[in-house]
Automatic annotation (TrEMBL):
This is Transposase InsO family protein. It comes from Halomonas cerina. Signal peptide: none annotated. One of its GO terms (biological process) is DNA integration. It comes from the Bacteria. GO terms for molecular function: nucleic acid binding. InterPro entries: Integrase_cat-core, RNaseH-like_sf, RNaseH_sf, Transposase_IS3/IS150/IS904. The lineage of its organism: Bacteria, Pseudomonadati, Pseudomonadota, Gammaproteobacteria, Oceanospirillales. Residues 1-75 form the Integrase catalytic domain.
Length: 75
């Protein structure tokens, strides 16, 4: 991407800890692969994804036309 905030991608990963599974949702800007939003929780439901996306929007304040892609769907 030629400029920041044109396309973001998101994904979730699971991390095993001594207290159980921890889920990390991350949003990256394809322009520079910078992590622009993230969230962690003990579940993989919609609020986890929304928290990461809301952080990214709050930090970057993208203009209309941003493409956001995620291939993971919460259950």
């Amino acid at each position: 991407m030629a400029e920041p905030n044109q396309a973001w991608v998101a994904d979730i990963t699971a991390i095993w800890t001594l207290e159980g599974w921890l889920y990390l949702a991350a949003v990256l800007d394809l322009h520079d692969r910078q992590l622009v939003g993230w969230a962690m929780a003990d579940h993989m439901r919609t609020p986890l994804l929304l928290d990461a996306l809301e952080m990214a929007v709050g930090r970057r304040q993208p203009k209309s036309g941003l493409i956001h892609h995620s291939d993971r769907h919460p259950t």
